[in-house]
Every structure is written in C-alpha cells, then in structure tokens.
Amino acid sequence: MCDLAERTPPGAAIDDARTIDLLMEHLRWSVLGVDHHDLPAGDLRREEHDGGRFLFVVSGAIELEHDSGVYRTGRGDFALLPRGGRFTLRAEQDSQFVGISIALLGAHPLMTHAMPPVLHSYGFGQQEPGFAALLETIHREAALRRPGAISVIAGLTDAAVSGSVRFWLEHGCGSARPWLAAAHDHHLGLALAAIHDAPGSPWTVASLARVARASRSQFAEHFRDAVGDTPARYVTRIRMTRAERMLRDGEPVSDIAYRLGYDSEDGFSRAFRRHSGVAPSRWRRAALQPAA
Description:
Layout: H1 17-24, E1 29-39, E2 44-49, E3 52-59, E4 61-66, E5 69-74, E6 78-81, E7 85-91, E8 95-104, E9 119-121, H2 124-127, H3 129-144, H4 149-170, H5 177-184, H6 186-197, H7 205-211, H8 216-227, H9 231-248, H10 253-259, H11 265-276, H12 280-288
Antiparallel strand pairs: 1-8, 2-7, 3-6, 3-8, 4-5, 4-7, 6-9
Helix pairs in contact: 3-4, 5-6, 7-8, 10-11
Protein name: AraC family transcriptional regulator
Keywords: DNA-binding, Transcription, Transcription regulation
Pfam families: HTH_18 (PF12833)
C-alpha cells in the first residue's frame, strides 16, 4: 500500500471494481530493457530514462529521490515511473534491485501524463505472494542471463507490472478515472496532462477548456462526468498531494506556496487546512514522527 501522504483524500472519487477492470484492459506493457544491480550500503546510482521505468527491490532498502519527492522502497516493494525521467537511488543498506524499462502499448500517449510521476507502494511482496514470485523469477532471469531471458522476462513483466498497478489502486493510492479519461478523449487528456505537468499554473475552468479545445460549459460538464470531480477540486487535489510530498521532503511552506501557484503563504495554508484539517507545519510534524 502507499503511505498516508499518497492515499486518496476524503471526498475524492474512489474507483469501483468496474473502473479498475476497464483500466486493466488498457495496460499492456512492452519490455525495452532489463537490468539487475547490487547496490552497497551508502552508494548512489543516478538514472535518467525517456520512457517508463519499473523498479522492484529484491533485498535491502533503497531511497528513490525524484523531483516529485523521496520514496523509501524496501524488500518486496516497487516503484513505477510511467514517464521515466531523472532520479537517484541511494542504498540504505546492501541492496539488490531489478530495473525494467517499459512502454505502454496501444493506449493513448496522454494516458501516462494523467498518472502520477511515481506510483510507489510497500507491502506488495508480502500481500501479493503470487506476483512477488513473478518478480523474483524476473530477478533470477536478469541475474543469470540465460538464453532467451529477455523473452521470458517480457512475458512475466506485463502481468507483474499490471498487478502492481492494481494493488496501488485497490489500496486507495490514487484513481484510474483520469487515466481512462485521457485514454478515451484526446482533448480531455490534454487538460489532465497540463494539470499534472504544471499544478502551480493559475488554472481556471476557462483556461483548461482552452487547452482541451472545448467551450467552458461543455468542458466542465464532461470533466466532472469523466473524472468524478470538478476541474477546480481536481486541481486542488493534485496541488495538495504535491504539497504533502514537498512538506515531507522538508521544503519551506513559503516555497511550496509559491511553486503551487498561491499568492501568499497564508492563502496556501488556508487551502491546506481545508484539505487536511490541520496547518501545513502541524501536518509535517505528524508525518515525520516515527511510528510507535
């Protein structure tokens, strides 16, 4: 499951089984490359990828640092970066991981832009032993480099990555509805991609309608029906999710307010309190408090 900073907030649309079923029909993954790495404690590894990247920790614990935040990934955990990008891996202890470069087949290219930059989950290996066994097999094939390993890995990866995404959704870490909207409607996908790529822009219904090449009223109604939220609430939700990650990473509240498009720190703090029920500084203290 995801940590509390990544859970779907109260009031947001929650996916039902049918929504997840529809999404899974779009998830077909192609394997572009596989690598296996030993990372001694304290070592850093920097990666940059133009396409999707799936990481699975075989042993140890690795901290993944991305522009969107820092994600601690332990044995049996995964991180999926649908659009790849630049990130750093730091081993908290002697660790092994498998990295798979992937591409989403057949789906609209804007679909990945409606996904979070990182889908991170812990407990996958413990709660989904069948899929964990698939990933362990991928690890062995990547490490041993037997003849035909790439073909074997390609067949296993499609099931393993799709199963990981389902696990992420079923545990309330996000919603598939925006992904499906982007896959089914190019113009709506443009608006969703714009929100995710630049949540701090001064988005309004009118400006998003222009991105989607639709009238204001038509866009607002279609967005609400497809995504399950109004454009304004969706923009705020994406901003608040990003804010929570930035707070956990120690960024000053004033910087967060500026980067997320608020006119003042007070304006951001009021929006954050409406979202979470507490002030940003108090939320940060609670989020960083060690578990009992």
